[in-house]
Task: inverse folding
């Protein structure tokens, strides 16, 4: 394990600024955000990113957290209370470890925040990037690198799904699992689908028709879109912030949840590491995922308030997890819940961990 410091060379920043100032913007296809990222908003954000955003200050803030790399895995590790099990906080897409930093500040146990394999400063794993492969990487980090015998896992999206695999693969070491997206079972064969479950599944299918374009191309032609995004920071910004707006609980006002410095920090990290293409790998490799068994450890669910989770019934989670200890739908905070509502999640996660011991 080696200490790690984020350090972006001045020529990389100069090149980024030059590209931003020479951006060619598209003609709007519809009003506002109806056809994707609003070109007028993008123009404003790109101007801020190029001319006002203070990356050195952002870099210094990030480096105030103890960071490390081991076996190609980047992570933040904060020690607070060695007498209690630590917690691993796992982000999703298109996110990064900085999503978890506000939550980290509010917890009173040891905290580990890894970058997913292929994201930012973490290398890809050998072989397909499945949820189980991510779980193996995280378990190695927690037990072999850091020496913990027992730990909690928290996450959403990819990080939550990988944490679900952690719990099924290593139930002796995983003390409990906290998720913001209710877990799905491998199938619905155990009992007939209820009307509430069917209503949710139908609504999810309708929503996917309007939202799945991004995942379709990342699942089938990731290198095609990555070639454009790796060469154009404005294009990268458009691709990423579209999801921050549509998946967060912002009511259509992106900056009501994320200030521009936060957005530009996320975008700069993706740009300088050149990781957008490798962040797509788990989409391309998704067919390699096996059906996940029933989750055997204690589970807490704090349901995110985002379009894809509206109307999610607890009964679906109960098909996937046999020991749900806490379940709540607070009605605020979306796909990036730890960043949007860190106090809410800190209270829920702390109560859950203390109930387990």
Result:
């Amino acid at each position: 394990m080696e200490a790690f410091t984020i350090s972006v060379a001045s020529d990389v920043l100069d090149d980024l600024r030059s590209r931003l100032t020479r951006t060619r913007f598209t003609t709007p296809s519809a009003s506002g955000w109806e056809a994707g990222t609003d070109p007028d908003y993008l123009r404003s954000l790109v101007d801020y990113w190029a001319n006002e955003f203070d990356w050195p200050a952002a870099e210094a803030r990030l480096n105030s957290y103890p960071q490390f790399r081991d076996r190609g895995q980047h992570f933040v590790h904060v020690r607070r209370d060695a007498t209690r099990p630590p917690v691993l906080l796992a982000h999703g897409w298109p996110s990064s470890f900085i999503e978890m930093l506000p939550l980290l500040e509010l917890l009173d146990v040891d905290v580990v925040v890894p970058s997913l394999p292929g994201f930012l400063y973490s290398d890809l794993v050998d072989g397909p990037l499945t949820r189980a492969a991510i779980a193996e990487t995280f378990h190695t980090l927690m037990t072999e690198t850091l020496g913990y015998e027992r730990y909690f896992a928290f996450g959403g999206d990819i990080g939550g799904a990988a944490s679900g695999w952690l719990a099924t693969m290593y139930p002796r070491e995983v003390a409990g699992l906290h998720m913001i997206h209710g877990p799905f079972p491998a199938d619905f064969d155990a009992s007939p689908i209820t009307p509430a479950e069917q209503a949710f599944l139908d609504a999810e299918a309708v929503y996917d028709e309007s939202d799945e374009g991004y995942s379709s191309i990342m699942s089938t032609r990731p290198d095609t879109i990555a070639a454009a995004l790796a060469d154009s920071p404005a294009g990268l910004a458009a691709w990423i912030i579209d999801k921050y707006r549509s998946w967060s609980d912002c009511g259509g006002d992106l900056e009501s949840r994320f200030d521009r410095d936060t957005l530009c920090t996320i975008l700069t990290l993706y740009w300088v590491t050149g990781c957008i293409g490798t962040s797509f790998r788990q989409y391309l490799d998704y067919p390699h995922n096996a059906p996940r068994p029933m989750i055997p450890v204690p589970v807490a669910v704090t349901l995110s308030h985002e379009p894809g989770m509206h109307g999610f019934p607890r009964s679906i989670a109960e098909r996937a997890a046999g020991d749900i200890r806490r379940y709540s739908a607070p009605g605020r905070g979306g796909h990036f819940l730890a960043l949007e509502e860190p106090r809410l999640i800190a209270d829920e996660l702390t109560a859950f961990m203390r109930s387990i011991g």
